[in-house]
């Protein structure tokens, strides 16, 4: 039997809940991929608005190099620099918080700053479009190394659901993608650290952390008490806090109901619930610019 949890939900559990609310338990007007796409967008929207996911990466600085692409240091998913900011390990001995400046401010305050000799960084600037961070002064040889620490809010990964093609006590083989089934990410280790839960079939109710993922075999290493098999339906667990999981189906229904211009009022009722719940999750009032009650029409 399917396993339902009150504290947290896996993506397949949410998928079933959305389909029930749409009064369409199997794909017809809405495809499975449409429903799953909106659930994943919901997780990203929640993370973007609430800044609930944060991490720090270490950037290795180079003598005389001013700018660094955070995508090269496992931070391609950055939303923005966090309140913790940016620190530099001066000479490998002392931590110094760097002051943020825009390029315009640097131009105004330090004319010709880009041509200044390398030294000890005091300021940083950040370009969100290119995900590039720059230092002024650029580091010299005494400050070259794993010395730059960037703390930022980040986007969650795209979650999967599916029916396993195989498995044992040490791994589950994810479903291959198709025109109607999500394609697994082609990057090795992409799902590492995520939790996967067996929703129904053999091993239902088991939750395990993915410790390794190999795209060529679609094997996700995880420890199971009861080995999953080809009857096991799984869903990955959202990275956002469990207290926000209930918001994801609301967001999906908000976006799905108005398909083709139909039932927009019903969709926006879910949108109102979502915005209210998100505001509560954030802990402050939220004015979401993309929320608008539109003219009601029905299909």
Structural class, by secondary structure, is alpha+beta
What are the secondary-structure elements, in order, as H or E?
HHEEEEEHEEEEEEEEEEEHH
Give the mean pLDDT. 93
The tally of structural domains comes to: 3
Distance between the termini: 35 Å
DSSP strand content: 25-35%
* Poorly predicted regions: 1-6, 290-299
Number of helices: 5
> Spatial order of the strands in the main sheet?
1-8-3-4
Largest beta sheet, briefly? 4 strands, antiparallel
Percent of residues in helices:
10-25%
Shape: globular
Radius of gyration: 23 Å
Oligomer: single chain
Give the number of DSSP strands.
16
Describe this structure in words.
This protein is of the alpha+beta class and 299 residues long. It folds into three domains: 1-52 and 240-299, no CATH class; 54-150, no CATH class; 160-236. The chain is 22% helix and 26% strand. It is built from five helices and 16 strands. It has a four-stranded antiparallel beta sheet with strand order 1-8-3-4, with no helix packed on it. A four-stranded mixed beta sheet has the order 2-7-6-5, with no helix packed on it. Helix 3 links the parallel strand 5 (99-100) and strand 6 (123-127). Helix 1 packs across helix 2, helix 1 packs across helix 4 (247-256) and helix 2 crosses helix 4. The protein is globular, with a radius of gyration of 23 Å. The two termini are 35 Å apart. Residues 1-6 and 290-299 have low confidence and may be disordered.
């Amino acid at each position: 039997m399917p396993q339902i949890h009150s504290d947290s939900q896996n993506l397949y559990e949410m998928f079933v809940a959305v389909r029930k609310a749409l009064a369409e338990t199997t794909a017809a007007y809405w495809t499975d991929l449409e429903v799953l796409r909106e659930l994943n967008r919901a997780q990203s929207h929640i993370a973007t608005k609430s800044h609930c996911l944060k991490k720090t990466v270490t950037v290795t600085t180079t003598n005389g190099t001013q700018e660094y692409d955070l995508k090269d240091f496992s931070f391609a998913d950055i939303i923005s620099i966090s309140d913790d900011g940016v620190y530099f390990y001066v000479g490998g001995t002392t931590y110094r918080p760097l002051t943020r400046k825009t390029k315009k401010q640097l131009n105004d305050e330090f004319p010709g700053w880009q041509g200044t000799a390398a030294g000890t960084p005091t300021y940083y600037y950040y370009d969100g479009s290119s995900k590039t961070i720059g230092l002024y002064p650029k580091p010299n040889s005494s400050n070259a190394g794993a010395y730059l620490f960037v703390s930022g809010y980040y986007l969650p990964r795209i979650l999967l659901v599916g029916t396993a093609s195989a498995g044992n006590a040490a791994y589950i083989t994810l479903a291959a993608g198709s025109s109607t089934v999500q394609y697994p990410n082609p990057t090795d280790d992409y799902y590492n650290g995520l939790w996967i839960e067996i929703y129904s079939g053999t091993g239902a109710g088991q939750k395990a952390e993915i410790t390794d993922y190999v795209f060529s075999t679609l094997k996700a290493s995880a420890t199971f008490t009861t080995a999953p098999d080809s009857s096991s339906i799984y869903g990955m667990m959202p990275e956002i806090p469990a207290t926000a999981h209930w918001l994801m189906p609301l967001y999906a229904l908000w976006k799905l109901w108005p398909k083709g211009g139909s039932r927009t009022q019903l969709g926006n009722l879910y949108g109102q619930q979502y915005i209210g719940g998100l505001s509560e999750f954030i802990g402050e009032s939220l004015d979401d610019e993309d929320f608008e009650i539109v003219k009601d029409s029905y299909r």
